[in-house]
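Schema walk-through. Below, the input block comes first and the output block second. Nothing else is stored per chain. Lengths vary across the set, and this one has 242 residues.
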Amino acid sequence: MRTKLILCCFTWLLVFSFSVSGKVTLPQLVSSHMVLQRETPLTIWGWATAKEKITISFNGKTYKATTDEQGSWSVKMNKMKAGGPFKMIVKGENTITLDDIMLGDVWFCSGQSNMALPMERLKEAYPQVIEKDHFPLIRNFFVPTKSNLSGESIDLPPGKWVPATGAGILSFGGTSYFFAKTLFQKYNIPIGIINSSVGGTPIEAWMSRDAFLTNPVQTKKINNFRDSAFMANYQKGLKRRT
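--- output ---
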């Protein structure tokens, strides 16, 4: 999925760890109501038992894959034009059916409180928008906040794609909602927003470990945070002080 950056910094998503089970499992982003990027090659991925055969049916075509030794699989899809809704069926040991999938433009929005501020907190300022707006082809996936100090992880915390209809509008970030609305009204194609924002976070929280390799002070802090013994002692010290 191609993403674009608006008013944001490069990010390290705050995600949690994932353990592979026997049944076919999909990442949080690959779910019903999602928007896939039009006019670009796509990758759909997931997990299952090692060496399991996976079949995906989508938009009139069938794709096949076999999981590797770690249970990971992925398929490549050709470019597709904007449109929908489509259904995606993923089969392995079990079957997963995803509904109401659109092809359009997907934007990645990130930042601090200016990007995270939800429409819920803006409803008094924009009552007519909350009451009258109805854009089912605009969808939002807000990445829940969860840190993982041990390293990067392969999936996001539980989340879902939410259309911009009714109470669903309230979960959009204000900045990203009006941005998506403007684009949709101009181009009339589905718009997907992936919002990964955390208010009050410093720029260091959004940078990879490799970005600090020339900074020994920050590198030491990161290594300490990834050391379970150090963190256990650190937490004990905090409790004693409180």
